[in-house]
Write a structure and sequence with these properties.
By secondary structure, the protein is α/β, with parallel strands linked by helices. About 30% of the residues lie in helices and about 20% in strands. Strands 1, 2, 3, 4, 5, 19, 24, 25 and 26 form a nine-stranded mixed beta sheet that branches. It has a six-stranded parallel beta sheet with strand order 9-10-11-12-13-17, sandwiched between helices.
Length: about 575
């Protein structure tokens, strides 16, 4: 007797092979046949007219905390994701000392946009080693979840408060190295780190891994290379603003020293910016020369993203903005009411050193989100520039006045520019190149202003009923088999007899993602952005339904992925 039978669906198996009609049979968590099985099944799904695909793999998430209160990693699983890779950007919740719990919570709240109340009330925080952290999640997750070992956690564990003050001594580096050995032996999927100026801890200081020397980084990469089924992940200033020679060389050297692939987040691809894209792929070119492999993550569809004067976002990154926007409510209102303060902030946002925070100087191109105050009636959905003209204000003054009326709990949504001369084939060539990997949702982080997790259903909707830029079988492969191979996931990423039954079933006529909206469902009552899936009929993890008609079933069959046991073969060749 089979455990599960998906009958009469159109199989898109993840290999890039053309879709074909077949039944898919599952027993003991694995696919036992794709064809015309003769056995009966405990559960049978009529999939006539539906697509049957591998579950998707999101290579860049921050579900480290959320999985402790949300086993289904919503909304990712509702959009067909069955495996998430977390512990990215150097940030993990282990290893951890008791004295550093609050520091870690405050750092994650600041740098990854996780509400502090949710962090303090959600996880138990009763672990110390990386292995103990993984053990807490064993048997408690609905999705498969693998975790990189964060460089920030390693340095903080060994150096304590000095981790944000100075490089490590030789003795301290030896201890950090031993701690990395221990964490990888326990199942860590590799090493993640940040050297990005955007990453600031809860005290406004550079996060710990930014104080590490390049020698420390490369010596830790050597250790990663001793463990099968591991990889590297990094974010640096070059990932955001553009790579100089030294920045490209560092990423390439990291991969070559470890003999493991390295991925970084995030590459925006457009033919109009082909010179910038070529620069961003310099680490990949240099890594090949050294025998390494560097891969840039790129989202196939835009993420929903809003900004606000009320909580940390890219506007705060412009020089001087954080000093004003982080003030208590009354003081912030008073400071922003001062025209001289606003003028100084705008001038700062226009400077080259503003980086991504420079978007604050272009507020006129944002639209108002949901409003509640009487003074803001009728503004929802309107362009800031149009409202500013009507009110005789500059754009920043208009934003400040409207936001202050809502006690700064007001979102502003960027208008995505369109380029009629953009060459879609340019994107496609890069998507399918060895230097680019689709994904990078940041799911589980920046909860109040970023929503990238619905990218699988949005991408499927586009290739099936929108741009039709590439056949669905190639789109599915890019979100399943390709990331599975990069991370060396055993028996996942393809629908094949003997493979693990991570499966998604979609209605090709309806699959899509609903609009982003607020949901107040986090521990402590904070809100996050969420988008319901459409046309997601079933999602199976290890042969069990975790999503039925877009909603979690309550089952928790997921695997906490451990390197060496659940991964293998992550070489640069």
């Amino acid at each position: 007797m089979l455990d599960y039978l998906i009958r009469g669906g159109t199989v898109v198996d993840g290999t890039g092979r053309a879709p074909y009609r077949a039944d898919l049979a599952v027993r003991g968590g694995r696919i036992v046949e794709i064809g015309t099985p003769n056995e009966g099944a405990t559960t049978t799904l009529d999939a006539a007219g539906l697509l049957v695909t591998p579950g998707f793999i999101d290579p860049h998430t921050h579900y480290d905390a959320q999985l402790h209160w949300d086993a289904w990693a919503t909304p990712s699983s509702q959009h067909g994701v069955t495996t998430v890779i977390a512990g990215n950007c150097g940030f993990t919740l282990a290893p951890l000392t008791d004295d550093d719990t609050l520091y870690t919570q405050r750092m994650m709240a600041r740098v990854e946009g996780m509400p502090l109340a949710a962090l303090q009330r959600g996880p138990s925080w009763d672990w110390h080693s990386f292995g103990e952290f993984l053990d807490r999640l064993d048997g408690e997750v609905a999705v498969n979840a693998g975790f990189m070992v964060g460089h920030c956690a390693l340095r903080r564990f060994v150096l304590g408060a000095d981790a944000v003050e100075r490089p490590s001594t030789e003795d301290e580096l030896e201890t950090i190295a031993a701690l990395l050995h221990e964490s990888l032996s326990a199942g860590g999927l590799g090493l993640s780190l940040t050297r990005s100026y955007t990453h600031i801890d809860g005290d406004g200081r550079p996060v710990p891994s930014r104080l590490a020397t390049e020698d420390e980084v490369l010596r830790l990469c050597d250790i990663v290379g001793r463990y099968d089924g591991t990889s590297l992940e990094a974010i640096t200033d070059g990932c955001i603003g553009g790579f100089d020679d030294d920045g490209a060389e560092l990423l390439a050297q990291m991969s070559a020293r470890a003999r493991r692939p390295l991925n970084w987040n995030l590459l925006a691809i457009a033919s109009a910016s082909s010179q910038h894209v070529a620069n961003q792929l310099r680490p990949s070119v240099r890594a090949r020369e050294l025998g390494g492999r560097v891969v840039a993550l790129s989202m196939p569809v835009p993420s929903d993203q809003c900004v606000t004067l009320g909580s940390y976002c890219i506007w705060w990154m412009a020089p001087g903005w954080n000093d004003v926007l982080s003030l208590p409510l009354a003081e912030k209102k008073a400071r922003l009411a001062d025209p001289a303060v606003r003028a100084r902030l705008l001038e700062s946002a226009r400077r080259p050193e503003a980086g991504v925070g420079g978007s604050a100087a272009r507020m006129g191109s944002y639209r108002f989100g949901t409003t509640n105050a009487r003074e803001n009636a009728g503004l929802e959905g309107r362009l800031v520039a149009d409202v500013a003209i009507e009110r005789g204000l500059d754009d920043l003054a208009c934003v400040v006045a409207a936001a202050a009326a809502e006690d700064f709990d007001l979102d502003f949504w960027p208008v995505r520019p369109t380029d009629p001369d953009d060459d879609p084939s340019y994107r496609l060539r890069l998507w399918e190149s060895p230097d680019v990997l689709l994904g990078g949702s940041d799911a589980g982080a920046h909860l109040d202003h970023l929503l990238g997790s619905p990218y699988p259903t949005r991408f499927l909707a586009d290739v099936l009923r929108g741009s039709r830029l590439l056949p669905v079988e190639r789109a599915v492969r890019l979100m399943s088999d390709v990331p599975a191979r990069l991370f060396g996931l055993r028996d996942r990423g393809r629908l094949t007899p003997g493979g693990i039954a991570d499966v998604a079933v979609f209605d090709p006529e309806r699959v899509a993602s609903g609009p982003a909206h607020r949901v107040h469902d986090l521990p402590g009552g904070a809100y996050r952005l969420l988008s319901e899936s459409l046309g997601v009929v079933r999602v199976l993890v290890n042969g069990e339904e975790i999503i039925c008609d877009g909603r979690p079933t309550g089952a928790r069959p997921g695997t906490v992925l451990r390197s060496g046991r659940d991964t293998t073969g992550t070489t640069t060749s």
